[in-house]
Amino acid sequence: MALNSAVLPNATSNVVIGGIHYDTTTEPPRALAEERKNVTFNVRDMSYFIDGSKEVTERFEDFMNQIERDPLFSNDAFYDLTLDKKRELTMARVAQAFKYMDKYKTTKERADLLLVIGLADPSVNTRMFVHFNLFLSGVQGSGTDAQLKYWASRGAVTGHKFYGCFAMTEAGHGSNVAGLETTAVFDEATDEFVINTPNQAAAKVSLYHDFIRNWSPRYDLPPL
Q1: How many structural domains does the chain have?
Q2: Do 116 and 68 share a structural domain?
Q3: Computed from CA positions of residues 181, 186, 187, 191, in that sequence, does the dihedral angle turn out positive or negative?
Q4: Are 143 and 224 in contact (CB under 8 A)?
């Protein structure tokens, strides 16, 4: 079957509102507002339904207002920044995100706050996911109660003293856990772990490389 290689125009990319042509790629707010006038239900009530309640919707809006008005989360000059400056900005935002989280006590409130922060900068959520879901959950799931309390006392829960990392990805294996070659063997004589990377393919590489090297404080830690 022959295929027509001609590029066809996208009939949905342009709309006419009040006799004026609008490009929906540049005028989405106006187009959406007009479309919402045609619905048969209350849009605000639908928001309450999707979020779960009026209170949750209003909480999301409060979070959005806080982040939108925070100069640190402005993206006006983001695309003009160098890679190093972007990393520096992201980590400053991570620190700011932890400060925001201090204001809320429940896990649900904090999770909703992170959803909103992720809209402003997904990189912040990525790094906080690594800290909470990979590093801290790893300690909680594989460590002892004493070890979890120790890391909590050093700021693992509040994120004000350090950010945890998770060194899994290797150059030759990606995130294929079964194929990883770097080993950590506990030496009882020295009471420490001996790390062995047998070849270049086993080198730990990921977007967290600079994050680990530049942002993780050095502490004298007890053996795990």
Answers
A1: 2
A2: yes
A3: positive
A4: yes
